[in-house]
Design goal:
It is a single chain. By secondary structure, this protein is mainly alpha-helical. The chain has two domains: 54 residues, no CATH class; 71 residues. Helices cover 78% and strands 0% of the residues. Helix 1 crosses helix 3 and helix 4 runs antiparallel to helix 5.
Length: 127
């Protein structure tokens, strides 16, 4: 039962994204019909239940989440936003300028760490 509650925590943002993706409706404005809303909710709950029942160890899910999300939040996204802001700001610094060497290095490190971490998690799942 614990796994089921953990799966439901992320239901709201996932449901909003699925409704926007498949039906092109903004649920913040309550544009989806009740059938679409409840259908997506039921489908995601069934999918979460199937995943929770098929995964024997929660550490697999947590390690994959850590390998992907930690690197994205700590390295990749901040550097991408920083480089984008510098390019669009006053003076418009080119992304591949030498003044962006440290930022590009952190971005490359984040992508490399993401790939290596994900590879290790998938490798541990296979063995």
């Amino acid at each position: 039962m614990f796994r089921w509650r953990c799966a439901v925590i992320m239901m709201v943002p996932c449901k909003l994204a699925v409704i926007d993706l498949f039906f092109d409706k903004n649920e913040a404005r309550q544009e989806a019909s009740p059938a679409e809303f409840y259908g997506v909710t039921l489908g995601l709950n069934i999918l979460a239940l199937l995943v929770a029942c098929s995964v024997s160890d929660l550490s697999i899910v947590l390690s994959l989440n850590g390998a992907v999300c930690t690197n994205l939040v700590a390295f990749v996204l901040p550097m991408m936003l920083y480089l984008k802001a510098r390019k669009g700001g006053p003076g418009g610094v080119n992304i591949f300028s030498t003044s962006n060497t440290a930022s590009l290095g952190l971005l490359v490190f984040g992508v490399f760490s993401l790939c290596v971490g994900t590879y290790q998690v998938i490798g541990s799942m296979a063995s």
